[in-house]
Amino acid sequence: MPTRDLLLGVLVTFIWAANFVAVRFGLDAGLPPLLMTGLRFLAVAVFMPAFPRPCGWGPLLGLGALFGLGQLGLSTLSVAAGLSPGIASLAMQTQAFFTIGLATIVLRERPAPRNIVGAAIAGMGITLLGITHGHSATVPLGGLALILAAALCWAGGNLLLRHVGRGTSPLAMAVWIAAPGSLPLLCLSWALEGSPIAILSTVRSPAVAAGVIAYSAIGSTLAATGIWASLLARHSAVLIAPLSLLVPVFGMSLSALLLHEQFDAQGLDSGPINLLRRRGLL
Fold this sequence. Notes:
Strand content: under 5%
Radius of gyration: 19 Å
Largest sheet: none
Number of strands: 0
Helix content: over 70%
Structural class: mainly alpha
Number of helices: 13
């Protein structure tokens, strides 16, 4: 992979990691999860007239469901269910393993031995970090289930995006994916969370809420999804998907810095280290 594409992939992971922290700020400002995600997609969808439709409505509806209702809707709900942004950004990266598995089965893209070794090492790191953090913080099972379902949807979206994304404008794809994703999210929000107008009139911090929507729409959806789509169009899914394993590195760092999430040495010692000792490995 060219160095330029590698750096673009790293930039995308940072933008996505910061979005987990932004979601927490948005929830604290008074935005419910479904409305927040629906407004994010609606803000992107307004750019539709500026771009020609990149593919048929069938793939667009599928991508909107997988990335909108699936990846982003479920991940936002997981944070609302009590999962910390750091752990959410960590668990979401199981999508890399889902993507590699699905790409191997569906697209017949065989990962190279170095990809398998790298994914295994990253998987061990994710497991150890999860055990460490789980020692000092209660991880809600409902939130964890939601984020794993979101990761599976992201993996499915990666494969569909790779299939239909070749030869299309990445920005056009990002905008038109948002269009079919916004309406069902807003309808679900109205049904489950109440009238959007009533909710927005009672938001505690309108400036923070507006900033979160703007960042999520312009940064995380338009810019990051557009770049990610372009990378998937130029490279195999098994090569691009593991880059997302950098998200928890940035996510947990930003969560500790901005939300004061604790990752202490005591948790490290009594978590994975003692586990390895009990197994006779240390």
